Amino acid sequence: MPAQPSPTTRVLLLAGPSGSGKSSLAARTGLPVLRLDDFYKDGDDPTLPLVEGSDDIDWDSPRSWDADAAVAAVQELCRTGRTAVPVYDISISARVGQDAFSVGRTPLFVAEGIFAADIVARCQDLGLLADAICLRGRPSTTFRRRLLRDLREGRKSVPFLLRRGWRLMRAERGIVSRQAGLGAHPCGRDEALGRVAAAAAGRHRPAAGPAGTAGAPVPPPAGAALAPRTAESDV
């Protein structure tokens, strides 16, 4: 079988707990952004996991998400610059359509979502990875931001959102630790923006394996421009 051509574009994977500010940071970079949350499984999928001790679907488990489809989309974007992506409605837990998505000729795009760290190793093995970041902050701030967003967007019922919010706040440090173990470098917003700027300048930083992180922080190159800050609308 002939060797695959080298990708003309690479991906920066942006992970972090739900509500950590991923969507806002991704928008601020000015780069094309692939929403990995659109690769959730439908709510009637029999393989969906449940929260232990309840009948709630565990939407924070990687088993609620189609990693194979997400990796295929990332690979196609890196090889061809375009792909078809599902349109997912979180409020009804279902895919409601499909969109064409293009990154044009940009050498870098962002793929953001709470499960982005779960595909670090696969993207690295495929030669697609520029960097992998786990955005972190204070659990109390993440809780507030996530709850206000989810209530505003009507994502789920209020009791479900409160149960999920308290559970995630207690688990947040473990979530960050797990994602770091998968190869995503844990850091705050400013360091993350510096790493994005470095990757956009072509200083790719492949992530380490399960026991490590993605490397030491690199300051943004002189003159590197990022888009103006946007309102918080985090995933």
Task: List the keywords.
Rossmann fold; disordered C terminus; single chain; two-stranded antiparallel ribbon; 6 helices; globular; 34% helix; 235 residues; 17% strand; 7 strands; alpha/beta
Could you walk me through the main structural features you see in this protein, from its secondary elements to its overall organization?
It is a single chain. With 235 residues, the chain is an alpha/beta fold. The protein has a domain at 10-138 and 177-200: P-loop containing nucleotide triphosphate hydrolases (Rossmann fold, 3-Layer(aba) Sandwich), CATH 3.40.50. 34% of the residues lie in helices and 17% in strands. The protein has helices at 22-29, 67-80, 120-125, 139-153, 158-181, 189-200, and strands spanning 10-15, 33-35, 82-89, 94-102, 108-112, 129-135, 185-187. It is globular and about 45 Å long. The termini are far apart. 36% of the residues are buried. Residues 211-235 have low confidence and may be disordered.
Short overview:
The chain has helices at residues 22-29, 67-80, 120-125, 139-153, 158-181, 189-200; strands spanning 10-15, 33-35, 82-89, 94-102, 108-112, 129-135, 185-187. The protein has 235 residues and is an alpha/beta fold. It has a domain at 10-138 and 177-200: P-loop containing nucleotide triphosphate hydrolases (Rossmann fold).
